[in-house]
From TrEMBL:
It comes from Streptomyces griseicoloratus. Belongs to the AHA1 family. Residues 24-129 form the Activator of Hsp90 ATPase homologue 1/2-like C-terminal domain. This is SRPBCC domain-containing protein. It holds the Pfam family AHSA1. Transmembrane segments: none annotated.
Length: 165
């Protein structure tokens, strides 16, 4: 994304990341993971326990090498939808603009679910598109890794979904 000029429409599209993955587990089991603020702060493997504490209504996830990340719960609609503000990282403090991370859990007809994630609001992180596009770049690749990690974690610890032939 270096030295590239984008149209306003292209920048609007780049303001969000949308990914999804099919998981062979019941919605309730996927919900148990998704409802954990910052479960995706890891090294590509979801752990059963994470270093999580609360400072008022802010969840603080500590990664051993990456530092602390802060999240505020926006909305929880069990077991279908969860939204969090990613309000701080080792590179941003809580007083700066943040992205919104939303998860949807959709049951599939043959069993299991589709887990969808949308992270939006990158353009609010900096006035210069080059700066926020750089921050977005790591997350764009990261969501592919994290959804695969979620699938492996949930399927490993979940009973097989019902409704399969």
């Amino acid at each position: 994304m270096n030295d590239t000029t984008y149209t306003d429409a292209e920048l609007a599209e780049l303001d969000r990341i949308a990914r999804q993955i099919d998981i062979d587990a019941p919605a309730e089991r996927v919900w148990e993971l998704v409802v954990r603020p910052g479960w995706y702060i890891n090294d590509g493997v979801v752990e059963a326990e994470q270093d999580l504490r609360y400072e008022g209504d802010v969840a603080v996830v500590r990664h051993p090498s990456l530092g602390e990340f802060r999240f505020r719960t926006v909305e929880l609609d069990k077991p279908r939808y969860a939204a969090f503000r990613w309000i701080g990282t080792p590179f941003r403090d809580g007083s700066t603009p943040s992205t919104l991370v939303e998860f949807w859990i959709d049951e599939r007809a043959g069993g299991g679910v589709t887990l969808r994630v949308v992270e939006s609001g990158f353009s609010s992180l900096a006035d210069d598109p080059a700066a926020w596009l750089k921050q977005r770049e790591g997350n764009d690749k990261g969501w592919l890794t994290e959804l695969a990690a979620a699938k492996a974690f949930v399927e490993k610890s979940a009973p097989a979904p019902t409704g399969r032939p």
